[in-house]
Amino acid sequence: MTQKIVIAGSGFAGFWAAVSAMRAIALAGKTGAIEVTMVSPTPNVTIRPRLYEAVLENMNPDISSQLAAVGVHHLAGLVEQVDTASQSLVVQQADGQKITLGYDRFVLATGSRLFVPAVPGFAEYGFNVDTLESAQRLDTHLKTLTNKAETPARNSVVVVGGGLTGLESATEMPMRLRAILGSQADIRVVIVDTAPEVGAGMGTEPAAVIQQALAECGVESRAGVRVTAIDADGVTLSSGERIAANTVILAAGMRAHPLTAQIPGERDGSGRVIGDAFLRAPAAAGVFVTGDTVKAATDDCGNYNLMSCQHAMSLGRVAGHNAAAELTGLPLHPYSQPKYVTCLDLGPWGALYTEGWERQIRFTRQEGKKIKQEINTQWIYPPAPDRDALFAVANPDFVIVP
């Protein structure tokens, strides 16, 4: 009887989980005996780390040919319910019909969603770059600002959140606005963060570099404050300051996909399931959690994966391999990702490249920018639809070394 592995999600983790599972099945000589099905609305990988950019071309590459090359079946739909007791899923198909899928192993790779604080006006007036659709909505909004009378609010953007996405969005924005409104426009971009200093989460030395980059890009900082209200014409801060702006971009962090709540077991503050060394959900037999849905140790020094494509790609490879390994008798592969780097795009200033969890600065400005461009345009994209090439990268030991 054919056994079934079902993978929910076609992002970085879901894609590599599917390819890695097929690789393990082929290594075990079980091709045809185990089916791998990916469930997602469309067979695409959204290049989420690039959605802060002004040009949104090729941000959602089709992976149909890659899946076909390795023998993965794609089912257009969304997993709505997970019943770990009966090992079954309820899937809302793209055609509106609901079906039930049984599984022998299930890999949850549905990623994360933007965290929207309970602040009046965020849902109605805020923009974000969390999905391709929301990034396109922001782009359309910015381009239609020329239809408004010139006012300080029209020419101003407030970015809420000083993490990587917020910093990348903010430093890109002055140049982006001038391209739309004209080089002579009086542009204002403000980044707001609750941390004592914008960029403080990166560490003391990187924060100093970030402050320099913000200043050179013409971005104002408001640290140690939060947004208390937002409307069509601006934001109010906890300090009492009012900033006039027709554009407010929310980048206040992420939370794991709601499906994690249907997986028994312990979760962290972001809703991620606490996985074991093999990325299994300890309280749910046959379930693997990966990408942004799992919290797992990256090393023996107390570090854990972040919600990033850097970790998601490796997590996906390991989860997919182990899901297949349990069915084929291959050895399971423990997750380990001790090498950690950060490459932060800082607009025309360049980029900041650090290594290690202590974030030691290695490259800045144009040297860092070159690495960032390679990451964004080459390393994170799916390889060509060649079975052997895909299997080579799907090895759970595979590591990209800058």
From TrEMBL:
Domain of life of the native organism: Bacteria
GO biological process: aerobic electron transport chain
Pfam families with a match to the protein in the record: Pyr_redox_2 (PF07992)
Cofactor: FAD
Domain FAD/NAD(P)-binding intervals: 4-314
GO molecular function terms noted in the UniProt entry: NAD(P)H dehydrogenase (quinone) activity
Calcium listed as a keyword: no
UniProt xrefs under InterPro entries: FAD/NAD-bd_sf (IPR036188), FAD/NAD-binding_dom (IPR023753), NADH-Q_oxidoreductase (IPR051169)
Record Gene3D superfamilies: 3.50.50.100
Keywords: FAD, Flavoprotein, Oxidoreductase
Family, as annotated: Belongs to the NADH dehydrogenase family.
The name this protein goes by in its record: NAD(P)/FAD-dependent oxidoreductase
Organism per entry: Serratia inhibens
